[in-house]
Amino acid sequence: RELFAEGLLQFLRPAVRQLDGHVHAVRSSQVELREHIDSLATELCRINEDQKVALDLDPYVKKLLNARRRVVLVNNILQNAQERLRRLNHSVAKETLRRKALLEAAGGYPQGLPGK
After folding, report:
1. Which CATH class is domain 2-105?
2. Which residues form a coiled coil (predicted)?
């Protein structure tokens, strides 16, 4: 049972770290996308104000702002997921250390398990 738990913890740790890295990359791209949307919305408003001909760009600005709101929402979801992953990774590391300490206190590692 201990061997299975140790193997499971060793299996999960790299997956959690990789997933955390991917979430971080997506969050960075979400921030960049939000900045581009803000810039485009500002530019559309400026163009709309500068136009001699009445060209209604408000619906497009509203669509951009709605897209920005969705990007912010997704970014918040990703941030929460990343925090949960960080806590999971911390728990895995803590449990691994606890199990190693128990094994050492019980007289060492079972046959076939490497040391520290």
Report:
1. mainly alpha
2. 64-98
In which residue are the tokens 């806590």 written?
87
- Rg of the chain, C-alpha, whole Å: 25
Residue pLDDT, tens place only, 15-69: 888 888 888 899 899 889 989 988 988 888 888 778 766 667 778 888 888 988 9
DSSP state of 54: -
Residue at 11: amino acid letter = F
Tell me the domain boundaries of the chain: 2-105
Report d(CA 10, CA 16) in Å as an integer.
Answer: 10
CA 65 to the chain's CA centroid: 23
Which residue from 15, 11, 19, 12 is spatially nearest to 78, judged by alpha carbons?
19
The answer to whether the CB of 17 falls within 8 A of the CB of 92 is: no
pLDDT at site 35: 92
- 54 CB-contact burial (10 Å; exposed 0-12 / middle 13-18 / buried 19+): exposed
Decide if 64 contacts 47 (C-beta within 8 A): no
